[in-house]
Design brief:
single chain; alpha/beta; Rossmann fold; 6-stranded mixed beta sheet; 3-stranded antiparallel beta sheet; 9 strands
Amino acid sequence: MPYIKSIHINASRTNPFPYNIPSIKYAKNIDLSNNLNFFIGDNGTGKSTLIETIAFRLQLPHMDGSGYAKKSFQAAVQLAAYLELNFNIDRPTGFFFRAEDFGDYLNSIHRADAELHGHLKSLEGEVPAHIIQEMKDNANYQIHHVRKNYGQELTSFSHGEAYLKIIQDKIQTRGIYLLDEPEAALSPAKQLSLIYHINEHLKSNTSQFIIATHSPILMSIPNATIYEITEEKMMKTPLEETAHYKITKSFLNNPEMYLRHLE
């Protein structure tokens, strides 16, 4: 049983932003009774804004741990009062992933590490290196947390490998998981790894996933519900009928047709 049965944006305003974007205008009685739901659409249709609004209302934790005070959540704050959630399971636990939060998280780790290194540099040669490292770990929880959980420096991972590893670490227990364009950090092969992890997780956990994506690979997960958002509507759409799938398939079948004007 999924946590959220349906959502509804009950706003009569149609201007300015964020009330005028398609995902907000057309999010009316959206059925989310599936355990796996996708919001898809072109740039500017508001997939991320809708996901962020749900995350803000649920107050789900997210990657950099800074809460929802960031400027990037201003639209979600405005819309929260208009978002009606119909629950099957109230007070959900879970996590909210945004690729941009992961980048901020990595940058904060590196900045903190550099600052601590500068502060402790004067001890080098007088205090053993492992003690200096222990002092740095004790002084900065993020660095300690990363090494404790992943056993190595984040810099030894590629960006995508680190992102996937942390997602897999967070998606372990039952809950609601909101993912905003996770493919931004993942290669096609790593997207398949994420599909496998989600599929295996749902076999043994009563969880719900709501994912905003441009990736035909991700939205191909069997039995998923896909909502395609356009300038005119937001509606359930079979995978093969989505614009993302049609364009990608057409291009891969005949790239010359699309690229002939570049010669």
